[in-house]
Predict the structure.
Amino acid sequence: MTILDHTLFVETQFDDHGRVLTLLPGQFCASLEEIARLCGKTITRVHVQRGLKRLKKFGFLKHEVIHVKTVVTITHIDTYDLIYKVADARSDPRMMQERYNHETQRENEMNEEKEGKENLAQSGKLSSKAGDIAFSFEKRAFENILEIDMQSWGEVYPAVNLRKELLLMVEWCLGNPTKAKSKKLWRKFIANWLSKRNEENINKQARSQSHKTCDGIERDTAASDPSKVFDFSEEV
């Protein structure tokens, strides 16, 4: 509000320490300290710097030091139009050029940002950093898995078939694209999958071995002492 209160509505000559500047409607000239004093006692030069930087980031204004003091120019479209009407300066070619330059710059920045997002989406790779393990929907496979990774997983998870489990993971990703696209830590995903399968296979092997042992004990017992298996007690 302080900036708007001191923005010029008519073309004005301003003396900036011996240099005469021509300020157009929508501009004003002051040092950062002067702006801070206008804002109030609790506002410092640092506050003003941060505030101007944020307003510039959101396209509300731009500021530059032409000589000694800072020249602030309102670039927000709606506010700019309001100042334009009040100043009755629609025929001023400099204001028209200033607005055109700002709009062109803003449009170019938005197009570059949009193009960058589109290129990222078209890559089809889901990875948090370059070189990390990633999943490519286009290739229907994991990428950046090294031989040393396979060796390490083989040692840590000896009860799993790595090739088979990786193929199952690929099928899971293809069958659950929404969940897969939300994942970034693919190395952790693979490790958790293999850990679960490794534990399941170990438990399965233990149960199978236990059943074989029990069956062997029963057969040995029946062969050595049939009375422990069959009831030969006399009827009463």
Residues 124-128, 228-236 have pLDDT under 50 and may be disordered. The longest strand covers residues 12-16.
